[in-house]
């Protein structure tokens, strides 16, 4: 550039500047994705070994994993897990199905909505676990009270999400259906249901998370089976390592159930834009 | 004045602690004692381990032993409840309408039995184990459930269970209300079982002088308790103290109910405790056996006994 | 809310406008519409009367918010008028009477492009084998062949708009109601699609009521341009556009009549817009 | 219309058709809004009186309300309520502040995000109440363990919401900031924070709901104060009416706290489009 | 990523283009840009060279997706080129060098219209008392006076776009980079704003680089029209537009040169679009 004035010029480089090496490494997301939990566990192990962490409350990961593997050999652990899963699922189904149905019905019928909305709005903010004692009084300490409390918690999450989905259908889609003279059930099937599906799945996702919370609490009462029981029981008899084994399984259950739901959602809602990749601000 | 925080369940077996408090035995020793209500064995281990309590009444069960095995430092130092003959504080009660069908331990087959602390390594589990063994039964031969004492009484009333293990004064109450009948008191099934004990946590173990003074006051109260029950001291005063501090608020009940046994010298039935540990381990309540000598420390009680006997 | 009555049961409350000549397809008489917006009443249309002949291509221009969309929605039967009436002659009961192309993006995100375009036929239970060739034809016309099985999220805004035009065409109605269908397109695609629209219209002789903001578009496409006044909308001018057909957008540019007409419309609109 | 062909004509009426009277009534939303809960209570009362509902589990609303009024005279009920509120609030603040800070930091730093995300993703689906026994072991049975468990639950909700908010800032806003040569802290203050605020408040809302759930559960342990304690205790001693009184207060607490949060949100985020009115489909 | 260097430290890697004449404000030399889209590499720009003189109004037209926005973003310093260089002469260090009006809605939803328009000044810590009159002036020019204290959600799409134009004007840069700023407006507001833009440009003699899809807009506004080819974008033609200024959109319509030029550009674009 040979302009001989004192003007300033903004010049951009003609190729990309080299990034620092560490930044390139962090670009490879999988590296950190694997590295960080492993690093965390190693750090934990070391902190316990040098006695900076109290081994009574934070047993070494190596020990816990060994415990987990040992217990995995016996069917008892799997019976506990099975109970927890079945309570979650039965309760979930018990709550989700009426939740979706009532949600769609309320979404499409203003009368029904205005009739029920105030009552539901009043019940919604009650933490459903607070109803658990009442439910135990009514249904006893057995399985049914556990299903019912999970069902109640799931029901409200799914109902609210479905309702929001149906109510918030873009007006124009209903206009198109009307313009094309869609019959009532055609409009339900081709517009209301698919348009609400993403919301319904959001409700499922929240409900599933809630169901695990509620199951863990419910398993503190009137049962000797289930991962929640193992956690509370281990606390009572001070078996911290057993508690960790159960915690790991509960975490896995939470993680895998959400993963499964996401899979199902992707299969059922192929029209959704894939989630945005991590954005490098 | 030395501060001591002591946990108790508000149960009648905590009597020596409340007596020492009310009759000023702690003050005599220069101790400033604060009583904290606890509601479960888990609470006990937790609070002792975090140092929120210096000492506590509690049950020498699997939870306590497990905690010690995993490095929590507390000691079992004195008797605070055992099934001395005549002290059937616990009892097996049978639903009224089944009283004539359940007569021997073998009749328990396929019955439902509710107990507080089932599967957590509670003392009463061993008692049940002995009862069943005498009838040639195993736990799996009947339906066992875990319930709080209150639930057991209610469940007997609503006929949800057949047999329950209850504590006084509920034992007396359910019989009086015609809900159930007393079948066997615990002292007839497993005499001298150590179901209650005084425990010292690290907070007081570190202060031996305080620990000793505390024990003196405690034993002094235990002796008053035994004297009152034997009619050698004012039972009215005892009842007044218990009414004030324990969950049994109706003075009438003390007339008919059985009291827990508390050894005047605080002596623990270590042989029985070892037997219990064996049972819990054999029945899957504990993963490993523990050496009782690591856990029990009767030296405080022995020193206190000497001091009290000398001053008599 | 919406009724399709045989003619002889015609609504006795038909507006005072009276006689509707035999060639008339759409007759709008004294239409007015008030909206309730909270406590206030917004008057969107007032005393609006229009006649559209069979096979005529009529464009409506007017300032933003003057009630064009409201008018079209009433004609489509999606909104009830506050006063006045609309009657449309339905020649062939086997065909849909009217289909609307909406101003907003209106193709269904949950259907593939193919399913979207075939929506009207599917609702009428036309067998799949008959739907497919029709859909393919209109996908080709709108340049979307390669996206037949894509979902809308994979399309650009312009492509979505083209799909909704294809959906209306595939429904094959007697009356096409188009609310700024090409506004979201870039100039080049817009002109291509305008030419396509004129070709299809020429072939099928549909009656078209077309809303646009673009004076050029109005002049290129229509037989008549209706200019609406600012809210509450009424018809301010009714201009005949006599350029010979077939027309090509770029060939009209040199015509002095074109410059005169567009200037005339521009001045009328400007008058309405100035208050903004 | 006097066209003499056999053509069909679609004719629209020239004024709005009269709606049925009941539909007009339901238009007046407030009518149903008040009517439906009142009706529900009256129905409940009647069902109990004619013994179709079991009075032991569903005491008559009139009785419960009387109980509530009587107890409201004594300060004990308000002490319980005060404990619950203070545990909720302290735990909420303890969790929300670090949640927002870490969320913004992770949102803006890809390295930090990639480092921590996997570990957080692993912990997130664990129902936090399952950690409560562990927290009781570490912090004892007193107030601190209750604050910590509430804080942990709130922390993750707020963190995830804030992170999502910062990561999903529309790219173009950051471009504008760059184009206007905003300095780093200017971009934080004028873009990142306000853009993430609606998400942060969503996190607050979820966290607040969660905090009430967790408090109610935590009050089952090591305390004789708090509405949760009243509920669990009433269950144990079969005092159903006391339970209902506490339930009503918990529900009110949930409702009012959300209402308050919504107020604060509206004050802090004046730029948000007011929520859409109910839509009459 | 972005550097403002005094001229004499000019980048030695400056493209082969070489000499830049003294009146040149913006010199783009051999610009190319590849994007990584998953595994594939998309070439958005290739060998693109442009000179814009001080005070010149240059318009870029080209088919959708040809790289126009990419080019403007590189000039704005928001994107780094893969090859080639951009240099812009900065005359007055007290003024911002360039400001961009983005194609998407870009005014901040969390600021009032007033705060949005004053954003650039606020960032430079100009005192409030000096900001207000500037903001008021540009709000008036864009017809937004009555919405000064409204939040963007209360505005229509067109009003938002006008606000972002006002924001760029208020920043008073030497170079205005405008990416289809009027595309979202209705025809009437568009023409009014075009006239406003020409007036401001005439008064302040800014250098303007303006992207549009509308041939009419390009012809009405600019001194030169650059036509870009389809992706990867390169400059296909560079046409001078010599109509006398001040111009009024509607007055040009009758000019035969206007018809010729617009036809010429149309044919070039059509060639590019046909593949779609
Ligand atoms: N459902 C409604 N409730 C209240 N007001 C409405 C409703 N629909 C439209 N309006 C108002 O009626 C007027 C006309 O709206 P309409 O959409 O018909 O205008 P338009 O001419 O199509 O405008 P544009 O050119 O911007 O699309 C506007 O002022 C609008 O705000
Ligand atoms: N960040 C990116 N990553 C990958 N590809 C990109 C990115 N930005 C732009 N492209 C691609 O580069 C090409 C040019 O995009 P650009 O936005 O510059 O086009 P344009 O000419 O502005 O189009 P339009 O007229 O539709 O605005 C397009 O094919 C686009 O998909
Ligand atoms: Mg409109
Ligand atoms: Mg672009």
TrEMBL record, chains A, D:
TM region positions:
30-50, 88-108, 120-141, 147-169, 190-218, 243-262
Pfam families registered for this protein in UniProt: BPD_transp_1 (PF00528)
The alphabetical list of record keywords is: Cell membrane, Membrane, Transmembrane, Transmembrane helix, Transport
Give the location in the cell. Cell membrane
Q: Under the cellular component aspect of Gene Ontology, which terms does the record hold?
A: plasma membrane
Designated name of the protein = ABC transporter permease
Gene3D superfamilies hit by this protein: MetI-like
Q: What is its main location?
A: membrane
Q: Which domain of life is it from?
A: Bacteria
Q: Which InterPro entries match?
A: MetI-like (IPR000515), MetI-like_sf (IPR035906)
Annotated membrane topology is: Multi-pass membrane protein
Its source organism is Ramlibacter henchirensis
UniProtKB/TrEMBL annotation, chains C, E:
Give residue ranges for domain ABC transporter.
26-255
InterPro entries named in the record: AAA+_ATPase, ABC_transporter-like_ATP-bd, ABC_transporter-like_CS, ABC_transporter_ATP-bind, P-loop_NTPase
In residue numbers, the region (Disordered) covers 1-20
Q: Which UniProt keywords apply?
A: ATP-binding, Cell membrane, Membrane, Nucleotide-binding, Transport
Bias type Basic and acidic residues, positions: 1-12
User: SUPFAM superfamilies of this UniProt entry?
Assistant: P-loop containing nucleoside triphosphate hydrolases (SSF52540)
Q: Which GO terms describe its molecular function?
A: ATP binding; ATP hydrolysis activity
The record's comment on protein family reads: Belongs to the ABC transporter superfamily.
Record-given protein name: ABC transporter ATP-binding protein
């Amino acid at each position: 550039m040979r302009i001989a004035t004192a003007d300033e010029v903004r010049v951009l480089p003609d190729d990309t500047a080299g990034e620092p090496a560490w930044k390139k490494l962090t670009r490879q997301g999988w590296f950190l994705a694997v590295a960080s939990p492993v690093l965390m566990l190693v750090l934990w192990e070391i902190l316990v070994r040098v006695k900076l962490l109290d081994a009574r409350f934070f047993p070494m990961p190596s020990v816990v994993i060994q415990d987990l593997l040992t217990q995995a050999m016996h069917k008892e652990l799997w019976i506990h897990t099975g109970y927890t899963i079945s309570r979650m699922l039965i309760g979930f189904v018990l709550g989700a199905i009426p939740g979706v149905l009532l949600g769609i019905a309320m979404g499409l019928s203003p009368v029904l909505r205005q009739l029920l909305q105030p009552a539901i709005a009043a019940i919604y903010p009650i933490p459903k676990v607070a109803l658990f004692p009442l439910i135990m009084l009514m249904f006893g300490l057995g399985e049914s009270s556990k299903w019912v409390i999970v069902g109640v918690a799931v029901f409200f999450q799914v109902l609210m999400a479905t309702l929001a989905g149906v109510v918030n259908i873009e007006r124009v889609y209903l206009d198109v259906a009307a313009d094309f003279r869609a019959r009532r059930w055609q409009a339900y099937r081709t517009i209301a249901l698919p348009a609400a599906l993403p919301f319904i799945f959001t409700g499922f996702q929240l409900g599933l998370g809630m169901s695990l919370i509620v199951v863990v609490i419910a398993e503190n009462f009137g049962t000797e089976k289930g991962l929640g029981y193992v956690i509370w029981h281990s606390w009572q008899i001070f078996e911290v390592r057993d508690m960790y084994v159960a915690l790991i399984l509960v975490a896995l259950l939470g993680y895998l159930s959400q993963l499964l739901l996401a899979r199902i959602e992707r299969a059922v809602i192929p029209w959704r834009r894939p989630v945005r990749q991590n954005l490098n601000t | 004045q030395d501060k001591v925080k002591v946990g108790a369940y508000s149960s009648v077996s905590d009597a020596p602690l409340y007596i020492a408090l009310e009759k000023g035995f702690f003050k005599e020793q220069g101790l400033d004692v604060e009583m904290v209500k606890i509601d479960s064995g888990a609470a006990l281990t937790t609070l002792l381990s975090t140092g929120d309590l210096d000492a506590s009444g509690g049950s020498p069960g699997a939870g306590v032993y497990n905690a010690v095995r995993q490095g929590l430092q507390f000691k079992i130092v004195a008797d605070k409840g055992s099934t001395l003959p005549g002290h059937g504080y616990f009892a097996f009660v049978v639903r009224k309408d089944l009283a004539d069908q359940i007569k021997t331990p073998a009749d328990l087959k396929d019955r439902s039995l509710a107990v507080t602390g089932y599967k957590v390594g509670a003392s009463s589990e061993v008692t049940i184990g002995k009862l069943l063994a005498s009838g040639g039964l195993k736990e799996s031969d009947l339906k066992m459930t875990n319930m709080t004492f209150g639930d057991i009484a209610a469940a007997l009333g609503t006929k949800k269970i057949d047999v329950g293990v209850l504590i006084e004064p509920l034992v007396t109450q359910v019989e009086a209300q015609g809900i159930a009948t007393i079948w066997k008191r615990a002292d007839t099934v497993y005499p001298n079982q150590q179901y209650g004990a005084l425990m010292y946590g690290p907070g007081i173990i570190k202060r031996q002088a305080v620990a000793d003074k505390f024990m003196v006051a405690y034993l002094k109260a235990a002796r008053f308790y035994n004297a009152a029950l034997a009619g050698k001291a004012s039972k009215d005063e005892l009842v007044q103290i218990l009414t004030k501090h324990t969950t049994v608020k109706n003075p009438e009940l003390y007339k008919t109910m059985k009291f827990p046994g508390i050894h005047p010298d605080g002596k623990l039935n270590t042989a029985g405790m070892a037997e219990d540990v064996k049972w819990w381990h054999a029945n899957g309540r504990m993963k490993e056996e523990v050496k009782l000598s690591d856990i029990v420390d009767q030296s405080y009680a022995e020193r206190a006994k000497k001091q009290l006997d000398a001053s008599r | 809310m919406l009724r399709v009555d045989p003619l002889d049961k015609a609504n006795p409350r038909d507006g005072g406008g009276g006689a509707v000549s035999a060639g008339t397809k759409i007759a709008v008489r004294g239409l007015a519409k008030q909206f309730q917006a909270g406590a206030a009443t917004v008057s969107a249309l007032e005393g609006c009367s229009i006649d559209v002949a069979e096979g005529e291509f009529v464009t409506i221009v007017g300032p933003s918010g003057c009630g064009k969309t409201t008018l079209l929605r009433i004609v489509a039967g999606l909104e009830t008028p506050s006063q006045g009436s609309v009657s449309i002659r339905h020649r062939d009961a086997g065909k849909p009477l009217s289909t609307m192309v909406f101003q907003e993006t209106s193709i269904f995100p949950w259907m593939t492009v193919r399913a979207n375009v075939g929506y009207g036929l599917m609702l009428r239970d036309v067998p799949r084998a008959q739907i497919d060739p029709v859909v393919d034809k209109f996908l080709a016309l709108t340049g979307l062949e390669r996206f037949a099985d894509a979902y809308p999220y994979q399309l650009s805004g312009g492509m979505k708009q083209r799909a909704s035009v294809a959906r209306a065409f595939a429904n094959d109605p007697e009356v096409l109601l188009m609310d700024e269908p090409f506004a979201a397109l870039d100039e080049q695609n817009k002109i291509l699609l305008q030419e396509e629209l004129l070709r299809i219209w020429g072939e099928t002789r549909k009656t078209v009521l077309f809303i646009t903001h673009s004076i050029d578009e109005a002049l290129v496409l229509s037989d008549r341009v209706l200019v609406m006044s600012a809210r509450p909308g009424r018809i301010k001018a009714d201009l005949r556009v006599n350029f010979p057909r077939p027309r090509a957008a770029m060939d009209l540019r040199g015509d002095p009549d074109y410059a005169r007409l567009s200037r005339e419309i521009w001045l009328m609109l400007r008058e309405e817009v100035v208050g903004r």
